[in-house]
Write a structure and sequence with these properties.
It contains 23 helices and no strands. The chain is mostly helical and 488 residues long. It folds into three domains: 177 residues, Serine Threonine Protein Phosphatase 5, Tetratricopeptide repeat; 125 residues, Alpha Horseshoe (Serine Threonine Protein Phosphatase 5, Tetratricopeptide repeat); 102 residues, Alpha Horseshoe (Serine Threonine Protein Phosphatase 5, Tetratricopeptide repeat), CATH 1.25.40.10.
Length: 488
C-alpha cells in the first residue's frame, strides 16, 4: 500500500482592511501565532472570534472565513473546512476569480479536493491559482502554489511536471528566505516525497533529514512540523522495509501529535495505521492489533471524518487475522472496509479496487478460488485505467491464483506484466520487483523451465540483498527458494 504523507504549504491572509478594526487585527495576530506554533485547535477559537467581529462590523468577513478554512484543513477537519470554503467562494466570486482573496480560497478548495483524492477538480483549481499568481508580484505565494500543484501532478502520475514544480518552489523559496526557513523545509519535504514515491529511498531519506535538521534548529522541540518531519522519515523507512527505523520514528511522532491535537484526534489515526504496519512486519502482531484497534476507535468517534483511513485500518487488521488463520474475523473486517470505501468514493475508485484485492487474497488463502477470481477481475477493471504499483500487485496476486488453478501460462503472463509495470515505475532494483521475480522463478521451476528460473532467482536475490540487506525476511525467503532449486 502506498501512503502519501506530504507537507502542504499555505499562508494566512491577515492584512486588515481598515486600521479601526484593532480587535479584529489582534485576533488575527493571535491565530497566526498559534498556527505557526502548530496549535491549530486554539487558533480555530481565535479565528471564530475574529469572524464574529468581522460579521458584526460587516468588514473582513471573507478573510476571516479563509483563515478558518486553512486552520480547519490543517487540523484535519476537512468537512468543516469544505463547508466554509464554499461559503467563502460564494461571497468572494463577486470580486472575480483574480481577486487575491478569491485566489486564496480557490487554493484551499483545491487542497481539500486533493485531500479527498479528487485530483481532477484539485488540478483545475490549483492550475488556476498558479496562473493568477504568475500575474502578481507575490513570489512566495507563487512558489507555494507551485508546490501544491506538484502534489496533484504526482498523484496523477505526471512525475516530470511534479518534479519541475517542486524544484521551482524550492529554488524560489531559498532565494526569498535563505536555507534555514520552515517554508524551505516544507518544499524539501515535498521533493523528498517525490523521490520516496519513485522508490529512491536513499535520496528521500537524505532530503527529509535536511528538512528535519532545519526544523530542529529553528522550531521548538515539540512543534508539530518537527512531528511531521519525523513522520515523513518513518514513511520512507516503512516503504524501504526498514521497519525497526520506521517504528522508532512513528513512536517519536506520536507524543508530538498527541500534545498538539489531543489523544483522540483523527490525525493520530494515520500515524497509528503506519506504526501498526511496521509492528506487524516485525512480527509484533499483538502490538499491531492493539495499535490498529486504537486507530479504529479514534476514527469511529469522529464519524465521517476520514472513512477511507478507517477502511485501511480495518483492512490491515484483517490482514493480520488472515495470517493468523482467523478467517471469519478477517472476512467481516474486509467486507466492512469494502462497503465503507464503496459508500465514500464509489466502486470505480482505486481504493475500492485495493479492498477487492484484499478480500480476494483471503479467498485465495481459503481455497475459494472462483470467488477470488471474480474479485481479482473486478479489481482489474478499475485498475487498468492507470499503470501503477497497485495494478502490479493485483496482477501478481492473480498470477498466484492461476498457479493454484494450474493455468500456468496465464500465470506467467500476469507475472511478466507485473514485472514490466514495477520496472517502469520503480526501475530495475526495487524490493517489490524482487518478490515478483522470485514468484515467476518458482513458476518456471514448476514448468521445468530451469534455464529461465535460475537467472530470475539470482536477480531477485541480488535486488533484495542490495535494497533490504542480507538478513531481511524477504532475502532469507528467496535464499531458501534458491536452495530448494539447488543453485548452491
Amino acid at each position: 500500500m502506498r501512503w502519501l504523507s506530504l507537507v502542504v504549504l499555505s499562508f494566512f491572509i491577515i492584512t486588515a482592511q481598515a486600521e479601526e478594526h484593532r480587535a479584529w487585527k489582534e485576533k488575527n495576530h493571535i491565530l497566526k501565532t498559534l498556527a505557526t506554533e502548530g496549535k491549530y485547535a486554539a487558533a480555530i477559537v481565535a479565528g471564530k472570534e475574529a469572524l464574529a467581529i468581522a460579521e458584526k462590523e460587516q468588514h473582513g468577513v471573507i478573510i476571516s472565513i479563509a483563515n478558518l478554512v486553512t486552520l480547519y484543513r490543517l487540523n484535519g477537519e476537512f468537512n468543516t473546512a469544505e463547508l466554509l470554503c464554499k461559503k467563502a467562494m460564494q461571497i468572494g466570486i463577486k470580486n472575480g476569480e483574480a481577486h487575491p482573496n478569491m485566489i486564496f480560497i480557490m487554493e484551499e478548495m483545491g487542497l481539500l479536493y486533493y485531500d479527498k483524492k479528487n485530483y481532477k477538480l484539485a488540478k483545475q483549481l490549483l492550475e488556476k491559482v498558479f496562473y493568477y499568481y504568475k500575474k502578481t508580484p507575490y513570489k512566495s505565494s507563487l512558489a507555494i502554489s507551485a508546490s501544491n500543484l506538484g502534489l496533484v501532478y504526482e498523484a496523477q502520475g505526471g512525475y516530470k511536471k511534479a518534479k519541475q514544480m517542486f524544484m521551482y518552489s524550492l529554488d524560489t523559496l531559498k532565494q526569498l528566505y535563505g536555507e534555514e526557513n520552515n517554508y524551505v523545509a516544507g518544499a524539501l519535504s515535498n521533493l523528498a516525497a517525490y523521490y520516496k514515491d519513485r522508490g529512491n529511498y536513499k535520496k528521500a531519506e537524505t532530503i527529509y533529514n535536511k528538512a528535519l535538521g532545519i526544523r530542529v534548529k529553528i522550531l521548538p522541540p515539540d512543534h508539530i512540523d518537527i512531528g511531521k518531519s519525523l513522520e515523513h522519515l518513518g514513511n520512507v523507512y516503512l516503504r524501504w522495509n526498514k521497519n525497526v527505523e520506521a517504528k522508532d520514528f512513528y513512536q517519536r511522532t506520536l507524543p508530538i501529535f498527541e500534545k498538539t491535537y489531543g489523544l483522540e484526534h483523527p490525525k493520530l489515526a494515520s500515524v497509528l495505521y503506519k506504526l501498526a504496519l511496521a509492528q506487524d512486519d516485525l512480527d509484533e502482531s499483538t502490538a499491531a492489533i492493539r495499535t490498529h484497534q486504537r486507530g479504529i476507535s479514534i476514527l469511529e468517534k469522529h464519524q465521517n471524518q476520514d472513512p477511507l483511513l478507517l477502511a485501511k485500518h480495518m483492512s490491515a487488521l484483517a490482514n493480520i487475522y488472515t495470517n493468523q488463520s482467523h478467517y471469519r474475523q478477517a472476512e467481516t473486517l474486509y467486507n466492512h472496509a469494502l462497503n465503507l470505501t464503496a459508500k465514500t468514493v464509489g466502486t470505480s475508485h482505486p481504493d475500492f479496487a485495493v479492498k477487492l484485492n484484499n478480500l480476494a487474497r483471503l479467498y485465495l488463502e481459503e481455497h475459494r478460488y472462483e470467488e477470488a477470481l471474480t474479485l481479482f477481475k473486478q479489481a482489474l477493471v478499475v485498475q487498468e485505467k492507470k499503470e501503477d504499483e497497485y495494478l502490479a500487485i493485483t496482477l501478481n496476486n492473480l498470477a498466484q491464483l492461476y498457479e493454484k488453478l494450474r493455468k500456468l501460462d496465464e500465470a506467467e503472463a500476469m507475472f511478466l506484466r507485473s514485472i514490466k509495470i514495477d520496472e517502469k515505475i520503480f526501475g530495475a532494483e526495487h524490493h517489490s520487483l524482487a518478490i515478483t521475480l522470485n514468484n515467476l522463478a518458482m513458476l518456471y521451476e514448476k514448468k521445468h523451465q530451469y534455464a529461465k528460473a535460475k537467472p530470475l532467482y539470482a536477480r531477485a536475490l541480488a535486488i533484495s540483498e542490495k535494497t533490504l540487506g542480507p538478513n531481511h525476511s524477504q532475502t532469507i525467503a528467496i535464499k531458501r527458494n534458491m536452495r530448494g532449486f539447488r543453485l548452491w
